[in-house]
Amino acid sequence: MINRSRDIKIVDTHFHLGECRVFDLNVTEEQVVKTLNDYSFSAMIVQPFPGAFPQPPIHVLNKIYELSRKYENRIYGIVSINPHVVEPDEWKSQVRKWIKDYGFIGVKLHTIGHAVNLMTKDAAMIFQTADELEVPLMIHSGLGQPFASPAHVSYYAEMYPDLRIVLAHAGFVFSAVDAFLMARNYKNIYLETSWSNMEDIQFFIEKLGADKVMFGTDLPSNTPIELAKVNAMNLNNEQRDSFLYKTAEKVFKIKVP
């Protein structure tokens, strides 16, 4: 638990809802709300698992939308739809609908869970759509090589310099250095640090600046672990505030209570 000797806001930028056939996981609505309230998070950004079934996971997206209405300005949604199982026009139509009509604030590209090679037409469609909609694109990185290699993102970072790209898991330990280099070399690439080593997170913040790094937990069971890392790091107030909520506010264009 964070030592809240002062009023500290926290945005969990990476959390899931629903079942997952890929990773054999299940997070209920009750667990989402319990995590939000038990840890006094200011806000959570929630997405379906890559293994949600059927695809597109309309049932999960609807649940996220309902939670975002019930917990307005505290729960937000990210669209995650497997681009291989629907026609491209349908994929783009669905993503546009959830962003424009239902207020979702980003798109997720799950390299390993959806078997997306970043050098393919389906990947290019995802980057182009996020850029057109002017919302951040979160990309699973690290675990699941070669598709999850952070280095592959450089092609699109150059092509879409105004697209805010978030490397989920910041390379997932295995590719932490690659993730760091991508964030250092491209102003539009940011790191989300769930499952990262504490030492790596501290290194990211010190070398990149905390305005390039953001807090996330991924799963209810991992939440206290990620918070323990924050407590163990030697961060000043400015660094901690940026890491815990200000970077998320900037990248996702939200204002947390």
Describe this structure in words.
By secondary structure, the chain is α/β, with parallel strands linked by helices. 40% of the residues lie in helices and 16% in strands. The model has no long low-confidence stretch (mean pLDDT 96). Helix 3 packs parallel to helix 4 (121-133) and helix 6 (176-185) packs parallel to helix 7. The chain has helices at residues 29-38, 58-70, 88-100, 121-133, 154-159, 176-185, 198-208, 223-232, 237-252, and strands spanning 11-20, 25-27, 43-48, 75-79, 106-109, 137-140, 165-168, 189-192, 213-214. Helix 5 (154-159) links the parallel strand 6 and strand 7 (165-168). The protein has one domain (11-252): Alpha-Beta Barrel (TIM Barrel). The two termini are 20 Å apart.
